[in-house]
Design a protein that fits this description.
mainly beta
Length: 774
């Protein structure tokens, strides 16, 4: 009888165990890019785990209620299991072992280690190293990148490998995207004032020509992604940051993540009294984003609204940079110079996996913006509408080592722009009234061939088209003597090829070589030259796009159990028909010309080491450094400088040969270093050091901006207060050594030495973030 009871009990227990066992099908993807993570480890309890396949898929049989998913370069997650369907696990990249992180910018959707391009990656951990409000601090830690600001909250421009430095306003030569929406206009102009940097979750920076995939992108591409919610996350976070010079920022963020969706809503409000006189700022941001995973289909939506009012203090000379860096320019104050903007962005994309071999990603977008900007030179007001789309098909034939991709992109702008004279903030005569249409479209294709298990060849190319229509509406408002300057300009199509080879030395080290071609078109403002009223504008429609050819070799690796990461690149890029702003001798306005050739040669190095400790007070130590050597020279380069002392002595209207001179606005040496500490009790410390070498500020290299160094530090404490609250309290000190410096310098200016936009001296900030977990 006893034996029968025991046998029955055993049968019941076995039946229950068998009933509890179930088969789970899932997929592991990168949280920001939605790309599959191959080789991720899926653990149940203390077993060794099963790796995901090349599509990120896994299958396990278990009776447990949760699994642990990990992958090198990503934050490990414990995920609760559900019944039925295919579960999606989304991992967030950390800032260690970045060569293992999936990147999408090169069109390969592969690990950074296997990508034949120099790509910098900024993750949420990098943003947390600073106050998290400004992009230029983490961006400048990437070798080959120099992000500059006219003041602490406005006027951002990004210089990639020395390209894009010669414009004093906005950015050009690179292409920027936010959640798939082009921030760059169809004519190549990029304005970043309306982007909420504090809400970013990932930034990828492709350095070097990327026109084979992205069109008007001679210097590279910047891909920004807003934060996303992790699976199972349902939280409300309130962050408050305050600091010196009246800095006050609030972020209210709601996140909801399930197996099939990720939704984020954020409202940010920011005020800043300003380090300089006439330099205050107020901004508001609303961002709404969602990803919805519907079997083979992923739908992503994004909506953003921003408005801001930034006063402009203007440029000061080198004496005031040192003695009165908080001063402002009288002509800017007299005209109440400021940037007043309002912007709306809408974007929808679909990633459809037809099967394991064929897929399509398509996105459409719509952007509307208003800009009101009085300056020392006058008043301009612009209303913009921008729309377009991008579609890419990818095909990997079965049982072949090939991957094909092909697609196209279309961007169109419609701008209504007026400008007026302005003296002592009194509106004067109409200078220009224009309706500008600009459209850029491109067709591209790329093939990757794994010729061996360790060797991959990439061939690609893009055919790029660009056209402008400028309608001069001022002709209807002035005397009949006025000459209408309307113009239609269609540039010759530009074919941009790319050839690359990647060789894996082993699982942890790769080398690559790349040849690529890129272009940058003249902007619509460069096409039309507007002198002071009542003179007639002149159409400068003979300009040609800049065209560059880049040769690059590099290596990436993860050594010493993937604790040590390195990335090194050497490049040589020749830019033909360089577009330069030239002062017209005897006039008060400028024109743009094709001045000649510029040669960019340099080297970039990035090193980091991460050591973790299971015992003791310190749990993580991460030192890192980056270095850029920039040997950028003019070659067969002729233009008229602004400084009369540098002009041709026999005839100021004749161009001067500046061949052999160092490119203005580019230091030869950029160096960054830092260290991160994390502790068992939640204390953490971040410290960074940046060195910017001397650089010429004119074509003749007669005047130089001094070298400077910056030290920044942040101390914080993170803790789980109870089962429903996470707390982060932090304090930081920027510019510890009280350095007098300016990141944005007006180059080749006839107002020299009044060219510097001073940045804040030593300044502190305090902040706290409280997350409520539902």
């Amino acid at each position: 009888m006893k034996r029968t009871i025991l046998l029955s009990a055993a049968i019941v227990l076995l039946s229950v165990a068998a009933f509890a066992q179930r088969t789970i099908h899932g997929k592991v993807i990168d949280q920001q890019t939605n790309q599959p993570i191959a080789g991720a480890s899926v653990l149940v309890g203390t077993d060794k785990g099963k790796p995901t396949d090349i599509t990120g898929a896994f299958e396990i049989s278990t009776g447990a209620d949760s699994i642990t998913v990990s992958s090198i370069g990503y934050i490990t997650q414990r995920v609760k299991l559900s019944n039925g369907g295919i579960m999606v696990v989304r991992l967030e990249a950390t800032n260690t072992a970045l060569n293992e992180v999936i990147v999408e910018g090169n069109g390969t959707q592969n690990k950074l280690l296997k990508t034949p391009s120099a790509i910098g990656v900024i993750t949420s951990k990098d943003f947390a190293r600073t106050n998290g409000l400004m992009l230029f601090q983490p961006m400048n830690l990437i070798p080959g990148v120099k992000m500059e600001m006219r003041n602490i909250t406005q006027g951002a421009r990004i210089v990639l490998r020395g390209y894009g430095n010669e414009t004093n306003f906005n950015g050009y030569g690179y292409k920027a995207y936010l959640n798939g929406i082009p921030l760059t206009d169809a004519d190549g102009t990029t304005i970043l004032d309306d982007v909420d940097f504090s809400n970013l979750g990932r930034v990828e920076v492709i350095k070097g020509p990327a026109s084979s995939l992205y069109g008007n992108a001679l210097a590279g591409v910047v891909l920004m992604q807003m934060q996303k919610a992790a699976p199972g996350e349902n939280s409300l976070t309130q962050q408050v940051t305050g600091g010196q010079y009246g800095l006050f920022r609030t972020n209210t963020t709601y996140k909801s993540g399930t197996e099939n969706s990720s939704m984020v809503a954020n409202y940010g409000h920011q005020t800043y009294q300003g380090f300089r006189m006439h330099g205050s700022s107020i901004k508001d941001f609303v961002n709404l984003g969602g990803d919805f995973y519907l079997g083979k289909r992923t739908i992503s939506v994004f909506a953003g609204y921003s408005r801001g009012f930034d006063y402009l203090p203007g440029q000061v000379d080198s004496v005031n940079l040192i003695n009165h860096p908080d001063s402002s320019s009288l002509d800017y104050v007299a005209n109440d110079a400021h940037v007043n903007f309002e912007n709306v962005k809408l974007g929808v994309s679909q990633d459809y996996k037809v099967n394991s071999h064929f897929s399509n990603t398509t996105s459409v977008f719509l952007v509307g913006s208003y800009l009101d900007q009085p300056s020392a030179a006058g008043l301009s007001r612009t209303l913009k509408a921008k729309f377009g789309g991008r579609s890419v098909f990818t095909w990997s034939p079965d049982k072949t080592p090939l991957k094909f991709s092909a697609g196209g992109e279309f961007i169109k702008n419609k701008n209504w722009a007026k400008s007026y004279t302005l003296t002592n903030n009194v509106l004067g005569a109409l200078k220009a009234d224009q309706e500008i249409s600009a459209q850029q479209y491109s067709l591209f294709a790329q093939v990757e061939a794994a010729v061996t298990k360790t060797t991959t060849i990439t061939l690609g190319g893009g055919e790029n088209f660009l056209e402008y229509i400028i309608a001069d509406m001022r002709a209807t408002t002035v005397t009949p003597a006025y000459v209408n300057q309307s113009v239609y300009k269609r540039f010759k199509p530009i074919f941009a090829p790319k050839v690359a080879i990647t060789q894996l030395i082993n699982d942890n080290v790769s080398v690559y070589a790349t040849m690529s071609k890129g272009f940058s078109s003249p902007t619509t403002s460069q096409i039309t030259m507007i002198p002071p009223a009542p003179a007639n504008p002149v159409v400068n429609d003979s300009l040609k796009p800049e065209v560059a050819t880049n040769y690059e070799i590099g290596s990436k690796g993860n050594l010493f159990s993937k604790k040590f990461n390195y990335d090194v690149a050497f490049f040589s890029m020749d830019v033909k028909d360089k577009l330069i702003t030239q002062y017209a001798a005897g006039n008060l306005y400028t024109i743009t010309i094709n001045a000649g050739k510029v040669r960019h040669q340099g080297a970039e190095l990035s090193l980091s080491y991460t050591q973790t400790f299971d015992k003791g007070f310190i749990t993580v130590v991460k030192p890192f450094l980056s270095y850029s050597y920039c040997n950028f020279k003019y070659v067969d380069f002729h233009t008229i400088p602004a400084d009369p002392k540098q002009q041709n002595p026999s005839n100021p209207k004749l161009p001067v040969d500046f061949s052999g001179k160092q490119v203005e606005g580019t230091p030869k040496n950029l160096f960054n270093a830092g260290i991160d500490f994390e502790s068992k009790v939640g204390l953490y410390l971040n410290a960074t050091y940046m060195y910017v070498g001397t650089m010429p500020v004119d074509f003749a290299n007669m005047h130089y901006a001094a070298a400077y160094s910056l030290i920044n530090g942040k101390l914080g404490y993170q803790a789980r207060v109870c089962s429903h609250f996470n707390l982060d309290v932090f304090a930081g000190l920027d510019n510890v050594t009280n350095t007098h410096y300016a990141t944005s310098i007006f180059l080749n200016s006839r107002d020299y030495p009044k060219i510097y936009n001073p940045m804040p001296l030593r300044n502190w900030y305090l902040g706290t973030s409280l997350k409520f977990i539902f």
